Amino acid sequence: MAEMEQDEAALAAKFEAEHAAEIAAERDKKFQLTGATAEELAAQDAVATAAAAAEAAAAKKKEEERLSPIQKINRMTVGERVKLAFLGNKEERAILIRDGSRVVFSAVLGSPKLTDQEVETIASMKNVQEGVLRELARNRKFTKSYVVVKNLVNNPRCPLDLGLQFLKNLTPKDLKELSMNKSVSETIRKLALKSFKEKTTPAGKKPE
Fold first, then answer.
1. Is residue 197 part of a domain?
2. Does 129 share its domain with 146?
């Protein structure tokens, strides 16, 4: 059996070699049945349609693979972006947290995949909506982290009421640094300096 298959393969190779020029000349010629019946033509059309659909799907997939994450997300509906916020990767969440749709950035903050490090980064982001920082501040799970609180207060995008709320939680060292942070409001800087002096002044002595 194996010997027979080898002989057949050798004959096929010989035929191909002898007709190489003809094969090359007609390499793009599509298959076509001579004297095909209506049934055979319908079957052929179905195969061609399926092949074209598969080719289109492969081309679309290849194109999507070339797209950047932002380009892919740009083509999605709100529902698809919400799903991606829960199931996507770190890079995709970093983009979606800046989405103009509240339901999308809320989905990012609600994702079980969101890490503590990502939350710390979000708290310091200057290119997110105010609503993102307010949601962070309302969530005790996030504000248990001192780094998150410090990043919020030092973030110029942080609403003043939130900055004042968390100011008291900072250490003297961070209060002093905050008082010199010119990117935050003057009110925050002044109150940070005042709190620093109060916390570092010995008991019984008035702050300078």
1. yes
2. yes
Beta carbons within 8 Å of 126's beta carbon, 6+ residues apart:
155, 156, 157
Q: 88 lies in which domain range?
A: 66-112
Q: Is the dihedral of CA 23, 28, 29, 31 positive or negative?
A: positive
| In a domain? residue 126 | yes
Question: pTM for the whole thing?
Answer: 0.66
Q: What are the structure tokens assigned to 142, written together? A: 């996030």
Residue 130 and residue 71 share a domain: no
- From first to last of its 208 residues, the chain has per-residue pLDDT tens of 677 777 777 777 787 788 788 777 877 766 565 566 777 667 767 766 776 677 767 666 666 667 788 888 888 899 999 999 999 999 999 999 999 999 999 999 999 999 999 999 999 999 999 999 999 999 999 999 999 999 999 999 999 999 999 999 999 999 999 999 999 999 999 999 999 998 887 765 665 5
- Tell me which DSSP letter residue 202 carries: P
